[in-house]
Write a structure and sequence with these properties.
This protein is an alpha/beta fold. It folds into two domains: 2-136, Rossmann fold (3-Layer(aba) Sandwich); 159-247, Beta Barrel (OB fold (Dihydrolipoamide Acetyltransferase, E2P)). 32% of the residues lie in helices and 29% in strands. The strands form four sheets. It has a five-stranded parallel β-sheet with strand order 2-1-3-4-5, sandwiched between helices. It has a five-stranded antiparallel β-sheet with strand order 10-9-8-12-11. The chain has a three-stranded antiparallel β-sheet with strand order 13-14-15, with no helix packed on it. Helix 3 links the parallel strand 3 (51-55) and strand 4.
């Protein structure tokens, strides 16, 4: 059984989630619930849960603000939120699980299964720590690290160290300036959105490149890019205008 607490300022949301967990996630045991951040902190410190369901948008003190007050994160977390653009972007960047309201049953089951697996494999939630650093230093992009969950571990990589990304079906390969290759079982379009603010360009359906690592644009043979590491990346006809605009100020 996964020892769990729920923190949400709306009692009907708490009761609804309790009911869904009881019906669809029998491996979850609810230790207690809280209707504000301060109560949530007390519950976490006293009950030592393995999993926390936390509403982000709470009056007085948000879920993020509550988490910053905790001394450690030896628990898994599933954030629950209405749509908030920056919050969702930061959550995805850190590979932290979240559910949008109203909670979808299938998404709930998947999130709980992932949390259950992770509870068995580690004690410190580094993804959550990375998320809180992003929230704290949201304007300091040079310090941001992208969480790349692989089969064996989650790697935290500074976007500037990524030369390019290449898709293969539902997988994305990340090629780093160190020469290392990391494969993640997520589609490239998710990372196109996450890396848009870090000068990455989608020059082809299967390729996403870091603008700072482009060495030249060869116009013959349909056109392709040559990167710092010597890789040659094709350019889609439909992407040429976007690429032109993106490279206007390339030095």
């Amino acid at each position: 059984m996964i020892q769990t607490i729920i923190i949400d300022d709306e009692q009907n949301n708490v009761e609804n989630l309790e009911g869904l967990l009881h019906l669809y996630c029998p491996q979850v045991h609810i230790l207690g619930t809280a209707i504000n951040a301060d109560e949530g902190i007390v519950l976490i410190q006293n009950l030592k849960p393995q999993l926390v369901f936390l509403d982000i948008q709470m009056p007085g003190k948000t879920g993020f603000e509550m988490l910053k007050e905790l001394p450690d994160y030896s628990f898994e977390i599933i954030l629950i939120t209405a749509y908030d653009q920056y919050g969702i972007q930061a959550i995805k960047f850190s590979a932290v699980d979240y559910l949008l309201k109203p909670v979808n049953i299938e998404e709930l089951k998947v999130a709980v299964q992932k949390a259950e697996s992770r509870v068995k494999s580690k004690m410190q939630n580094y993804e959550l720590e990375n998320l809180l650093q992003l929230i704290k230093n949201r304007e300091q992009k040079s310090t941001h690290k992208l969480a790349l969950p692989t089969l064996k571990e989650t790697r935290f990589v500074n976007p500037r160290d990524i030369i390019r990304c290449e898709s293969s079906n539902a997988y994305t390969s990340f090629f780093l300036s160190s020469g290392e290759k990391i494969i993640v079982s997520r589609p490239i379009y998710e990372y196109e959105e996450l890396l848009a603010g870090f000068d990455f360009i989608r020059c082809h359906q299967s390729h996403l490149v870091n603008k700072e690592h482009i060495k030249s644009w060869v116009k013959e043979d349909g056109g392709y890019l040559i990167l710092d590491n010597g890789d040659e990346i094709p350019i889609s006809r439909s992407k040429k205008e976007i690429l032109t605009q993106a490279l206007i100020h390339l030095k």
